[in-house]
Write a structure and sequence with these properties.
The complex is a heterodimer of chains A (214) and B (885).
Chain A: H1 2-9, H2 13-45, E1 50-57, E2 62-67, H3 73-88, E3 97-99, H4 101-104, E4 109-115, E5 118-124, H5 130-148, H6 153-158, H7 160-170, E6 171-172, E7 175-176, H8 181-213
Antiparallel strand pairs in A: 1-2, 1-5, 3-4, 4-5, 6-7
Chain B: H1 14-23, H2 27-47, H3 50-65, H4 74-82, H5 86-99, H6 110-118, H7 123-136, H8 139-152, H9 158-174, H10 179-189, H11 195-211, H12 213-236, E1 244-245, E2 248-249, H13 251-265, H14 269-285, H15 291-306, H16 311-325, H17 330-346, H18 348-352, H19 355-362, H20 367-380, H21 386-397, H22 402-419, H23 423-437, H24 443-455, H25 460-473, H26 478-497, H27 512-524, H28 530-546, H29 551-559, H30 567-582, H31 584-590, H32 599-607, H33 616-622, H34 624-627, H35 634-645, H36 651-661, H37 665-675, H38 678-689, H39 695-703, H40 705-717, H41 723-733, H42 744-749, H43 751-755, E3 770-774, E4 778-787, E5 790-802, E6 808-816, E7 821-828, E8 840-849, E9 859-867, E10 870-878
Helix pairs in contact in B: 1-2, 2-3, 3-4, 3-5, 4-5, 5-7, 6-7, 6-8, 7-9, 8-9, 9-11, 10-11, 10-12, 11-12, 11-13, 12-13, 12-14, 13-14, 13-15, 14-15, 14-16, 15-16, 15-17, 16-17, 17-20, 19-20, 20-22, 21-22, 21-23, 22-23, 23-24, 23-25, 24-26, 24-32, 25-26, 26-27, 26-28, 27-28, 28-29, 28-30, ...
The chains are: A alpha+beta (214), B alpha+beta (885).
Chain lengths: 214, 885
């Protein structure tokens, strides 16, 4: 509720910036506490899952990021930077596994795959099979490829929400949902169709209502 | 006009925003663009126009990904979710997952929307709600929505079923109590034919087993057979293109099934038994030339290693890992190393068979593999194989990457110190490591090497010769240089004389000047840091005593550092120069070998388990390198006192002392000789005599001789614990009492001094009278007074009392003082001393002390008199003068 009040008070852009930064500090405090909780909680419950999916380009710009456990935004970006600095220093034709415990805490593994200008990175814990995760990246990329016909970085940038839809059909809350790219494609196409249809309905109904109100 | 038909009517489109952001050249430009965009979005939010919500959220998600704050959009997510349209709901749920997390209270508001959507007519909306719930479900939501999810496990569409299964995992993780509700529907799902659903069902069962014992028991009893059959069918099934990953049928399902079987087999012999066959089949029949197949094999090995033992299967498993190790694919080798790491605890012998291959992996070009392999080798090392393994690692050290050297040396050092079978081997290996990668070695490591060498007295000669030989070839590694210099300094004599030659050594001929040459070259090397140079100076000083013939040359080398801009070096140079030039007689004392440090203490200290309190000898070696940097003043104070201000107490001083002390010295010297060499006693006496040449000092100096020597030699390179020395010097100067443990024996014996008054203003001070001399027949009392304005001169009134029953006639008092004193005797008040203390003779005299404040008065006296015409002579010396006269 306080969020809205904070927003409604900000009428001019300048006051917006000020109140936003104040709010940001406040939030940072909260998230700091929260992150402590998270770590202890994780240790307690030993979440067994894929912890994050990152797609970044070879300049280190994030293209898709999805964290399946709670990470404050600042920490997310710190982690992304750290991952990139590790990845960009690795030679070609070396293994796809990197020691990630320094970045993501104990019991974390990192698998990455390099395609053209993009790094696809999966972070997970000991509950998952490293080689299978490598295959999962393959599944993800194959699906993207089918969706966009020779997927490139720009497709991912501009179809941001569609990529998320695809990802949500493959990994669900940190668990592998589907491993067949055909199945994923089917589901995504249904969603796209539905979206387009309802948009059309929306448009028609609106133009009709506009026309009637005339 | 309708805003959707005219996207430019308000704000920009998502696509345009992305373009604008991508067009930014600098981070500042980007920030500005995003700030502008955020302001526009806020305004739009405030206008509360439902038509733009969708677009605003999409933009916010992009902004969020770039790492900018987007919290102001959280309520918009909820509004979108609550709206009826599919696109709005979709973007709303997407925003919910990305912008919010389970911690935020806003989330409470969404529970109701979720509940409605889980019951929605449209299965895609149900799918969206499930997906959101699976990502952000909190414990409260889990309790509220568990019935809906449970119902959805039987939904007609497989897509919903599989999402519901994964959502159930999240729910039971949040609220383990709910697990029992899910056991039945989950086991029912295991009969699914649809691969996607089956994967999630197996996963759900695995998680149920993890959170609940009852569920584990139930599934183990009811489903093990079925799962084994499913896996068998899968392994034998023909090609099915849909779930194929590069020619292998559904590796993910394979892996999930193997994982679940692992959970079921762990700790249960029957269940393990029932899966043996299929595991063997999967382990042998799966082709191993593809990544997907290897993933299955890898999982299979993990399962075999975890379930209840079957020797044959384990052999198979380790065999698979061995094959992995020789695979050319880096990934495969990486996982093999990972797995072997786990297998080591179960069966180290089997893993040891692949020792050679693992060692090859340590040398791999891939950093990840090297690291894993090194860790594995580290675990594999034991007493029996430490030698060959270390040899391999050390030889690799020569060729490996700079980045890797740090890790590698740390591990080698750790292995060597942990498993070293004998000291000579330890020394050899450490020399090699220091030579190759000295700069990567931690300080404790080379210090530990010094400790080990100094402890192995029979290897002193060997170590110093080995170091010398190696040092001739290379002096690039500073840590090595330090060890070599230290040893050459300490054991220089052994180096020259080939003492303690071992059979395996080659004879080397090193002359004294060779050794000095080497250190001279080293100390001139500009790259060395001053600690090393300081150590080199100490080594030179030590050599100056070990090799008397080179002493002058060494002095010349040392003198060069007199003007060094590093204070430490400058100071050492001056001190050492003074020791060599002027204190030949004490030098050998000062530069004696370092006392051996107890290894256990050192290791304990390294581990931080011991506090800093310890014996002096332990302290000295441990903090040797640290001490270097600290000011080394007190020893020098002591020496300076002798050399610069006082008449030198060298040979002539000694003679003089002998004269002066006469009878009393000899027992003291003898008792000293009992403990240390005679010369040592003399030297120390010299030192101490400067201030107070007196009875009470002699005995402590002799008796505490050895400890004093320890202190001296220790402080040669250990300037941290100089306080004992401080006290040593203060003994002769003032009666300051101290409480330093090292000097305790001396202090006890010097208690006599403690009673004398402390140093105070010289002028006009009243000094207590002393009984200067007392025999059975005669008592002599001194009263002191100072001449105002002349602190050096003391007026002494001597009062003589006759204790015998006979009158003394022709009474003559004579006194003698050392050269630094001047004595003026006045005539006595009379020459006859009445018997039985019925009268006295007084005599005044003046003593001028040129070393006032530094040395106390001493005096020898001779008294002659006649008793009934018979001559009598009494002699004695007086040393209990108040100290600051």
């Amino acid at each position: 509720m306080s969020l809205q009040r904070g927003c409604s008070r900000s009428l001019s852009p300048r006051t917006t910036a000020v109140s936003a930064s104040v709010f940001e500090d406040f939030k940072a405090c909260i998230s700091e506490e929260a992150s402590c909780q998270t770590i202890s909680e994780i240790n307690l419950k030993k979440q067994k899952m894929i912890r994050a999916v990152l797609v970044m380009n070879t300049q280190g710009r994030p293209r898709i990021t999805k964290f399946y456990e709670f990470w404050p935004v600042e920490k997310q970006h710190e982690a992304i930077r750290n991952v990139f600095s590790v990845l960009c220093s690795r030679a070609e034709h070396v293994s796809n596994f990197v020691d990630a415990e320094s970045i993501f805490g104990p019991d974390s593994r990192l698998v990455y795959k390099h395609f053209a200008t993009l790094y696809f990175v999966l972070i997970f814990d000991s509950s998952e099979n490293e080689l299978a995760m490598l295959d999962l990246i393959q599944v993800f990329v194959e699906t993207l490829d089918k969706c966009f016909r020779n997927v490139c970085e720009l497709d991912i940038v501009f179809n941001y929400s569609k990529i998320h839809a695809i990802l949500d059909e493959i990994i669900f809350g940190g668990q592998v949902l589907e491993t067949s790219s055909t199945e994923v494609m089917k589901a995504v196409e249904e969603i796209t169709k539905l979206e387009a249809a309802s948009n059309a309905i929306n448009l028609v109904s609106k133009s009709v209502s506009n026309w009637r109100s005339r | 006009m309708d805003p959707i038909l005219n996207p430019f009517s308000s704000g920009t489109r998502l696509r345009d925003m992305i373009r604008a952001i991508r067009a930014c050249k600098t981070a500042a430009e980007e920030r500005a663009a995003i700030r502008k965009e955020c302001a526009a979005i806020r305004t739009s939010i405030n206008e509360n126009d439902p038509d733009y919500r969708h677009r605003n959220l999409a933009k916010l998600m992009f902004i969020h990904m770039l790492g900018y704050p987007t919290h102001f959009g959280q309520m918009e997510c909820l509004k979108c979710i609550a709206s009826p349209g599919f696109p709005e709901k979709r973007i709303g749920y997407l925003g919910l997952m990305l912008l919010l997390d389970e911690r935020q209270e806003v989330l409470m508001l969404v529970t109701n929307s979720l509940k409605q959507d889980l019951n929605h007519m449209n299965q895609y909306i149900v799918g969206l709600a499930l997906c959101a719930l699976g990502n952000i479900c909190s414990a409260e939501m889990a309790r509220d929505l568990a019935p809906e999810v449970e119902r959805l496990l039987q939904f007609r569409d497989p897509n919903i079923r599989k999402k519901a299964a994964l959502c159930s995992i999240r729910i039971i993780k949040k609220v383990p109590d709910l697990a029992e509700n899910f056991v039945k529907p989950a086991t029912a799902l295991l009969k699914e034919k649809h691969h996607g659903v089956l994967i999630t069902a197996v996963q759900l069962c695995a998680d149920l087993c993890k959170v609940s014992r009852e569920a584990l028991e139930h599934i183990r009893k009811k489903c093990t057979e079925g799962l084994v059959r499913t896996l068998k069918d899968l392994a034998n099934s023909s090609y099915s293109p849909e779930y194929d990953v590069s020619g292998i049928t559904d590796p993910f399902l394979h892996i999930r099934l193997l994982k679940l079987l692992r959970l079921l087999g762990e700790g249960d012999a029957d269940a393990s038994d029932s899966m043996n066959d299929i595991l063997a089949q999967v382990g042998t029949k799966t082709e191993s030339n593809k990544v997907a197949a290897n993933a299955i094999l890898y999982e299979c090995v993990q399962t075999i290693m975890s379930i209840e033992g079957n020797g044959g299967l384990r052999v198979l498993a380790i065999g698979i890992l061995g094959k992995f190790l020789s695979n050319r694919d880096n990934n495969i080798r990486y996982v093999a190393l990972n797995m072997l790491m786990k297998a080591v605890t179960a069966d180290p012998q089997a893993v040891l068979r692949y020792r050679a291959t693992i060692l090859e992996c340590v040398k791999d070009a891939d950093a990840s593999i090297r690291k894993r392999a090194l860790e594995l080798v580290y675990v594999l090392v034991n007493e029996s194989n430490v030698k060959p393994l270390t040899t391999e690692l050390v030889s690799y050290l020569e060729t490996c990457d700079q980045d890797f050297k740090g890790d590698l040396t740390a591990k080698i050092c750790s292995i060597v110190s942990k498993f070293s079978p004998e000291k000579i081997w330890y020394i050899d290996q450490m020399i090699k490591v220091l030579l190759e990668a000295g700069s990567f070695v931690k300080d404790e490591v080379w210090r530990a090497l010094i400790v080990v060498i100094s402890n192995a007295s029979e290897l002193h000669g060997y170590a110093v010769r080995a170091l010398y030989k190696a040092f001739q070839k290379s002096n690039e590694q500073e840590a090595f240089t330090r060890v070599a210099i230290w040893c050459i300094g300490e054991y220089g004599d052994l180096l020259i004389n080939n003492v303690g030659m071992l059979d395996l050594e080659d004879r080397i001929t090193v002359t004294e000047s060779d050794a000095v040459d080497l250190i001279e070259i080293t100390i001139q090397c500009h790259a060395l840091d001053f600690t090393t140079k300081a150590m080199a100076l100490v080594a030179l000083l030590k050599l100056s005593s070990r090799f008397p013939s080179c002493s002058e040359r060494i002095r010349e080398i040392i003198v060069k550092y007199k003007g060094n801009f590093v204070l430490e070096l400058q100071q050492r140079s001056i001190e050492f120069n003074s020791i060599i030039a002027r204190h030949q007689n004490i030098r050998s004392m000062l530069v004696e070998r370092m006392p051996v440090l107890d290894e256990a203490t050192f290791i304990g200290r390294q581990a931080g388990s011991l506090p800093d309190a310890g014996s002096i000898s332990a302290g000295s070696s441990v903090s040797l390198p640290n001490g270097v940097a600290k000011p080394a003043d007190s020893l020098v104070d002591l020496l300076d006192l002798n050399s610069n201000d006082a008449p030198t107490p060298s040979s002539s001083g000694g003679d003089f002392l002998q004269d002066l002390l006469g009878v009393d010295l000899s027992p003291a010297a003898q008792s000293g000789a009992n403990q240390t060499s005679k010369s040592g006693t003399d030297a120390l006496l010299d030192l101490l005599s400067v201030g107070s040449v007196s009875g009470p000092v002699e005995s402590p100096s002799a008796q505490s001789n050895s400890s004093a020597m320890d202190i001296l030699s220790a402080s040669k390179s250990e300037k941290a614990s100089v306080s004992p020395l401080d006290d040593l010097s203060s003994l002769s100067l003032s009666s300051r009492t101290t409480s330093i443990t090292g000097a305790a024996p001396m202090m006890d014996l010097l208690d006599g001094f403690a009673s004398t008054p402390p140093k105070s203003e010289n002028n006009g001070t009243v000094y207590p009278s002393i009984t200067a001399f007392e025999s059975s027949s005669l008592q002599l009392t001194f009263n002191f007074s100072k001449q105002p304005g002349n602190s050096q001169t003391t007026n002494i009134q001597a009062t003589f009392i006759n204790l015998s029953s006979d009158e003394y006639t022709d009474f003559i008092f004579q006194a003698a003082v050392p050269k630094f004193l001047q004595l003026q005797l006045d005539p006595a008040s009379g020459s006859t001393l009445p018997a039985n203390g019925n009268g006295s003779i007084t005599q005044n005299f003046r003593v001028t002390n040129s070393q006032n404040g530094k040395k106390s008065l001493v005096m020898r006296i001779r008294i002659t008199y006649k008793i009934n015409g018979k001559e009598k002579l009494e002699e004695g010396q007086i040393s209990n003068f108040p100290r600051d006269l």
